[in-house]
Write a structure and sequence with these properties.
57% of the residues lie in helices and 9% in strands. By secondary structure, it is an alpha/beta fold. Helix 5 links the parallel strand 3 and strand 4.
Length: 339
């Protein structure tokens, strides 16, 4: 059967375990979180010495995994076998896969086998067999889109007993993208230094993580959307003077994605706010910037901007450009967009 991350966490907290877990998918964060929880909590410290086995796909065979899983616990009532990096095993060979399938049909009741298969899907036959079993649980860990990240951060912070402002969440996304592990690590630093009773604001992010609350891609995007020329140029100059932290190769994709959605908004036949938010996949966190840009730039202008972004990216790569640095390219791009 299949389950969600939060369903599994609740089961684990109740000490309710099945015989086989398969955690797989593009996002390694949930796979690591769940497997780490099991290695920490299924067995007592004494039982771990005798009944816990950690294997790695690159160094193990299917036969090794099955043999370990068929052993009976030496102390206590359960043993735990964790197979990490299972994607490194050769499961395309029928003889290897058949061993796993055979065990999946009749797992040892006293064993919990955890299979961690990262970045891709395991063989379809294995998925099908485990999905049909009442002694196995499957979780697919999907990669999150950046548009989903502010809400994810807010939920994570809330579950930890804290609260965070919308802008602070956006700043973390701009700085760390959709890397869940990095974001969670940075949040951990905030929890150590920040009292639970106070909201985590952009000032807190700037103080403890070092992300500027005034000079970041979201403030740049907001200023461009509103055509606040002075602020746009101030941020562009800051980016130009600090190319290490504000690479043009990070700025251009963000702006390309932004203006591509604005162009989509212009093309929609239904101009109602609800229809635009649905089709362009806008959220309550970012919708104002998009609607500001939609009002301030007509479709032809947005098409030109997208063309200039492509041209700027090519020149930043050194094609047809022998002397203009990133800062000058960005200033030139800003002038074209705002005039």
């Amino acid at each position: 059967m299949t389950a969600t991350y939060y369903q599994l966490v609740k089961d684990f907290q109740k000490k309710s375990f099945v015989n086989i877990y398969l955690f797989y998918g593009e996002e390694p964060y949930y796979i690591d979180e769940l497997s780490d929880y099991l290695t920490e909590n299924v067995l007592t410290d004494v039982e771990k010495e005798f009944n816990q086995t950690i294997l790695y796909g690159r160094d193990s065979t299917t036969a090794t995994v099955i043999n370990c899983s068929k052993q009976f616990p030496m102390v206590g009532e359960r043993q735990l076998v964790v197979l990490r990096e299972a994607q490194d095993m050769d499961l395309k060979k029928d003889e290897n896969l058949s061993l796993l399938l055979s065990y999946a049909n009749r797992p040892l009741q006293s064993t919990t086998l955890v299979i961690c298969y990262k970045y891709k899907a395991p063989p379809a036959k294995l998925l099908k067999a485990l999905a049909a079993s009442d002694k196995a649980v499957i979780l697919e860990s999907k990669r999150k889109y950046e548009s989903d990240m502010p809400a994810w951060i807010t939920t994570q912070v809330k579950n930890s007993g804290y609260s965070i402002s919308d802008k602070a969440a956006l700043m973390l996304v701009e700085f760390l993208g959709n890397n869940l592990e990095k974001i969670n690590n940075e949040l951990g630093k905030l929890y150590i230094n920040h009292p639970k009773g106070k909201v985590i604001t952009e000032d807190v992010i700037e103080l403890y993580i070092g992300i500027s609350k005034d000079y970041n891609i979201f403030e740049f995007q907001k200023a461009l959307a509103k055509k606040e020329i002075l602020k746009v140029n101030q941020i562009a100059n800051h980016f130009a003077l600090n190319p290490g932290e504000n690479s043009i190769f990070k700025t251009i994709p963000m702006l390309f994605s932004f203006y591509s959605k604005v162009l989509l908004m212009h093309s929609l036949p239904d101009k109602s706010e609800s229809a635009i938010m649905s089709k362009a996949k806008l959220t309550s966190y970012n919708k104002q910037d998009y609607f500001d840009a939609y009002r301030n730039y007509n479709a032809k202008k947005v098409q030109d901007i997208i063309g200039w972004l492509r041209e700027c990216n090519i020149r930043a790569l050194g094609i047809d450009n022998y002397s203009t640095d990133q800062g000058e390219l960005l200033r030139e791009l800003v002038f074209k967009i705002t005039h």
